[in-house]
Specification:
By secondary structure, the protein is of the alpha+beta class. It is built from eight helices and eight strands; from the N terminus they run αββββαβααβαββααα. It has an eight-stranded mixed sheet with strand order 4-3-2-1-5-8-7-6, sandwiched between helices. It is globular and about 50 Å long.
């Protein structure tokens, strides 16, 4: 990979780190971001506020049978890189992994609950699927075989994507839906979508090539990104 491509990737990672901080989804040294760099990975450094991350602070990481090691960069990689590596190995179609602590979604995770086991809104189904499971770190790889976002028990949220924007938007949507679910709780809780409607939305998601392919890793998407709003409208009409 050329130096120019590496520099572009480094700027994108740094920008995502700053975005996480600006949105209030991380604090102190919380959160981390990584992306594929050919056969290696580029990652945010440990012990740095995400609001302060600069492209020249990133570390290049190589994975091997014994784990992983920093091969370039003057700083240390975060200790949770093993979780990112598990995500990359589980999903060859995934190029970006983002971990953060958005407050509403993380509140569900620390309470030992998920808010999406019975989906209640149409657009998030197309974007995220019907499952945002609550898992332990050891269950992450298996969970990512069927979804693009997970709640880590007592530990926040991980989202994955083929690019920085997708990973970021999925994090944003997880937090948005988690907040809606929390606001609906004192009103009696969110009402699940009808089963037939959910089926149509998931069909639209599959048709658009969103999410992991059943039983196998999906190839990276090409061409323009699908218009989720249009897909929802189409799915809600009778086929």
């Amino acid at each position: 990979m050329s130096a120019t491509a590496r520099e572009v990737l480094a700027r994108e990672i740094a920008a995502l780190c700053v975005h996480l901080h600006m949105r209030g989804w991380v604090a102190n040294h919380d959160g981390n971001v990584s992306a594929r760099l050919g056969e290696r990975f580029l990652a945010s450094p440990t012990a740095v506020s995400k609001g302060d991350v600069q492209p020249d602070m990133l570390v290049e990481v190589a994975a091997d049978a014994d784990g992983f090691r920093v091969v370039a960069g003057e700083r240390k990689v975060f200790s949770e890189f093993s979780l990112h590596l598990a995500a990359f190995r589980a999903r060859p179609d995934v190029a970006w992994v983002c971990h953060a602590h958005p407050p509403h979604a993380t509140a569900w995770a620390v309470a030992g609950r998920t808010f999406w086991d019975a989906p209640f809104m149409a657009e998030p189904v197309v974007s995220l699927g019907a499952d945002i499971p609550l898992v332990d770190g050891s269950q992450l790889a298996d969970a990512l075989g069927r979804c693009d976002a997970v709640l880590l028990r007592n530990h926040g949220v991980i989202t994955v994507g083929a690019d920085a924007e997708t990973a970021r938007l999925r994090m944003e949507l997880v937090e948005h839906v988690a907040r809606i679910a929390a606001l609906a709780e004192p009103l009696g809780g969110a009402r699940p979508l009808p089963a037939d409607e959910l089926k149509r939305l998931l069909a639209a998601r599959a048709k658009a090539g969103l999410g992991p392919a059943p039983g196998a890793a999906r190839s990276p998407s090409v061409g323009p990104k699908p218009d989720v709003s249009s897909l929802v409208a189409e799915a809600l009409r009778r086929f």
